[in-house]
């Protein structure tokens, strides 16, 4: 029997449909692979970054926190460092005071600017966290660092229990809210040696009761984070604890002196250590001296840590602060000295190198002069060190993309950092 055109038409339509479906599926698969690759590049740790706390000027109608976070993002960074603290409504960001905010979790959910930056497209968050349960309000216009810590002369059990609950609840909130996001949160403190010596006198022997109290404070914070991670179901989100130190040179010069590095870090064994590194960077006038002394301090800090399961591979000490104020250096020297620090830290292998900061936070009381810890100055001018960061991010993305295209996997951090030392942005 002769087959008519009508007989073949359904078969032809099915064949065309299968071809269309195959092409469409291929295109969708290719599109998804491209999006996945782009996301993996944007999520890569580019090591260098900056932060925002207590800026003294702004240029838009947005809040200080949101404006500076946007500037950090626009510069090319995928990392935001900021503070979550009862001082959110005073010197840190000048946000509206809300009497319903009485915990870190409520600060994260009820304060619009805090929630906005936590929801922004940053991969890495470094956050100074201080419990509302530990805070005594300061007089208007006055700043007293002892108002935020309750471990001077010992740490009462009631404060320990309150802090545990507050940090546990906040960590649980982050794990639940950002599960599946890929975000990584590092919760820590500002320069810990100024908590241990709250009178800022580095020459005095440490108060042993305060030392024990601060140790218990740090243990409590670490345990609260660990317990929340154990108890709360989550995926593709991480929360870690860090202790920041700042008097490392004192420990190197005076081995018998008690500082946070050799008396608390080695007891608590936190997930990570942040180094506010001015004592290993700013005293030195030559790159070779800075390189030698910064690496010596980093080695010392790493030696205070014990092996710990459940952490990514790599070094556990990073540069939490470094900076070269314009009041002491012209723009080009500010940039050059910053590059010395970046290259030294990359050579050593720190996972993060954080510049202080996006907008300057210090003004000379006597003269009203901006001290100049900035990437963008009070006139809105992007400094040479801003351009170094911006160009570094561009070179980083290009390198990571080319490596991914060639090898079908992302470069390890060691491969990246060694290559980054050759970037034009670090070799002006």
TrEMBL record:
The chain crosses the membrane at residues 7-26. InterPro entries: GH. Keywords: Membrane, Transmembrane, Transmembrane helix. It comes from the Bacteria. This is Glycoside hydrolase family 42 N-terminal domain-containing protein.
